[in-house]
Amino acid sequence: MKPGRAVAFGKSAAQYLVGCVRHTVTAKPRVEPGDAGLLEAVKQWQQVFEHNPVMYFMVDPAGTVMNVNTFGAAQLGYTPAELIGRSVLDVFFEEDRATVRACIALCLETVDQSHTWEIRKVRKDGSVLWVRENAKTMLRANGGPIVLVACENITERKEAENALRQSEAYLAQAQELSHTGSFGWKAATREITWSKETYRIFQCDEGTKPKISFMLARIHPDDRLAVQQTTARAAREGKDYDHEYRLVMPDGSIKYVRAVARATRDASGQLEFVGSVTDITATKEAERRLRDSEQRFRDYAETASDWFWETGPDHRVTRISEHSDTNTAPAGLIGLTRWDIAPDADLEPEKWRQHRAALDAHIPFRDLVYRSKDRNGQPIYVRTSGKPFFDADGTFLGYRGVCTDVTAAIRADQAEDALRKAQAELAHVTRVTTLGELTASIAHEINQPLAAVIANADACLAWLQRSPPDLKAARRSVEWIIEDGKRASDVIRHVRALAKRSDIEMAPLDAGAVVREAVALVQREMASHAVSVRMELSSTLPRIFGDRIQLQQVLINLIKNGIEAMEGIDDRPRELAIRSATDDNGAVLVSVSDCGAGIDEQAMDRLFMPFFTTKSSGMGMGLSICRSIIEAHGGRLSAMPNQEHGATFQITLPLHREDAS
Ligand code: ADP
Q1: N or C: which end of the chain has fewer CB within 10 A?
Q2: CB–CB of 244/258 below 8 Å?
Q3: Domains in the chain, CATH or no CATH each
Q4: How far is the centre of ligand 1, averaged over its atoms, from the C-alpha of 637 (Å)?
Q5: In this predicted model, what pLDDT tens digit does every residue of 136-158 receive, in sequence order?
Q6: Mutation to probe ligand 1, out of 431, 434, 616, 623 (largest number of atoms < 8 A from CB)
Q7: What share of the chain is helix, strand, coil (3-state, %, to 5)?
């Protein structure tokens, strides 16, 4: 507490008092017993001193209490006797004692000058007593200084002040937390007062007086006029106002604020607005984000060809989106259930039973496909997914979901199925046709081992007829018979497999073996056409995944085409090269190259078209079937002219998945 000059101090009374005290306390009364009038006066003043509701202390330069009036001692819970002779510091808090010493020192330095300060004292019971002290050093008769202190109890005021300060602090904190400042605005004098938070919101130095010009400068130029109009009207009509506007902060950022003010009258009857100003930037941002995301979903919904539906707790349609002219959302569904409208409800009872069980269990469902009708009553296929929704208490309210018209996709699937079937049939027919054409080759393939069987059987008989029979040689002959028999039966099994109408059987295959088996069937065909075959098969080929019969059909077809392409060639050896390799991606390549007539450019584009043929007896289906077989395997079939003579047909097949991983 800083000691300051006393503004008012009962000077004459104090001086007189000190005079009296000089007599009564510091020096024992030296009033003669006969001086009755004076004695009476001293007594009276002593009464005043003792019971005047002001606390008086007399303290010597060392801080020892020389005297204290009864009132003063009682205020602190003591009797005067308990305090006299003690250090005055005893009635102060430890932490305030340095201040007290400084105050006393100041008084001692400035004899006859009054000083005043406010400080806490501590009562005997430990409670606090706030006092306003008025002190002055006076010189005693013997010239020694004494500090006279008069104190007034200001505890109540201090407590009120503290309470006020505290509630102000709470308010400031609440304002800060809620980003809400308060303000007062006297319309007549244009005087404005702001709370700390309002200063913060406007980013204005708290020391400066808020001015309308400053506020206007802060307000976004586009909002300025509206703010001026609102406040001017409020001032004119003496009415409350509530408005939002933007501030442009010194760093260029935008702040949204909402100001709400109530019109009141001050003590002098003048119009005054008291209000709050809230920083609503975060709310505005959140609102904007919400709006954006809502708009985003609306955009998606409006551009989607899907439609959205909502059903109630009884699963009857309550809402259906009708945002687009192009959508096929059926009309007139409100109030109906899904199974009311689906013509397949009776045909597929199990599907619908499961669906209704899911709905009754209030669990989400996905990709239910059913038949329905479009706006024009045309049958359509619909795929729908939905999820249940509930109110805040968890009560089931219904389902929301989306429907897609999948008619085209389903029709395409059906068409593809039909096409696949037709292709398989055709592949089978052409395979059988090819086998027919290959009868000579096949017969040769079977005849060769059969001839060997007969020869070996003859030999065996001859070995047995010897005397003694050469059993060892006979056994060898029988072993050869068995081997050749197996070879013949393998060929027959293979031909039967090719001729059989079987479903496609995808399996991991050794590409080399598939090629070799196919070549075996056309060996004779090649020989009869004076065609030699060169096999360049990689020994490290990974396995492929496919249908053995179909792949062999493709190879036989390509080989046969190669043989036919070389038919008229007499000026060079008729050679067919069959190669296998892997490409950079690890896919398996098998190629068949001939040195025949080659393919002219116009034919190149049409080779794989059904019924394209340049042969008098050709059907033109071979390559088209080959390509569809290879594509069904996830591969590619391509043709390219060779550099010198002839053409190369190349098959690219993906790896068997497990081997690839
Ligand atoms: P087809 O053999 O019944 O004509 P393909 O679909 O197998 O039917 O062949 C279509 C056409 O492609 C043949 O007529 C021929 O003109 C051409 N072609 C096929 N393979 C070769 C080849 N290796 N060299 C040149 N032309 C070929």
Answers
A1: C
A2: yes
A3: 3-153 (3.30.450.20), 161-285 (3.30.450.20), 304-405 (3.30.450.20), 504-661 (3.30.565.10)
A4: 14
A5: 999 988 888 999 999 999 999 99
A6: 623
A7: 45, 25, 30
